[in-house]
Automatic annotation (TrEMBL):
GO terms for biological process: phosphorelay signal transduction system. The gene is cheY-3. SUPFAM superfamilies: CheY-like. Gene3D superfamilies: 3.40.50.2300. This is Response regulator. Signal peptide: none annotated. Keywords: Phosphoprotein. It comes from the Bacteria. Residues 2-119 form the Response regulatory domain. The modification 4-aspartylphosphate is found at residue 54. It comes from Actinoplanes cyaneus. PROSITE patterns: RESPONSE_REGULATORY.
Length: 120
């Protein structure tokens, strides 16, 4: 499977990649995007099976990326790994079709719990 990791922080993308490996999902094809527009473009062009997105990114926020993908008919599994978590954000994410919402800091156990049903 192909997984797109979208976060404007290169360090955070590396942490997500490392945590995916620690959780046992390191054998998947991992693609990175450094902002919201790149996340949208790569999701459209490379057709990943899963998108793990930050909420706040330049260009487009993660929720804007999700909404534009859904508006374009793209139903990729999409969710958030973010440092912010309000009930309004969770509600907006769920209403837009988000499959998960992981709050930073996260653990390999949390990734396993969330991604095992998605990635098998």
């Amino acid at each position: 499977m192909k997984i797109l990791i979208a976060d404007d922080s290169r360090v955070m993308r590396q942490i997500v990649v490392r945590t995916l490996r620690q959780a046992g999902f390191g054998d998947h094809d991992l693609v990175e995007a450094a902002d919201g527009q790149e996340a949208f473009d790569k999701t459209t062009a490379e057709k990943p099976d899963l998108v793990i997105s930050d909420w706040n990114m330049p260009g487009m926020t993660g929720i804007e990326v999700l909404r534009q993908l859904r508006a374009a008919g793209n139903n990729v599994k999409f969710g958030f790994v973010t440092s912010e978590c309000t009930p309004e954000m969770k509600t907006a994410a769920e209403a837009s079709g988000s499959a998960f919402f992981i709050v930073k800091p996260f653990t390999a156990e949390r990734f396993d719990e969330v991604f095992a049903p998605i990635l098998g």
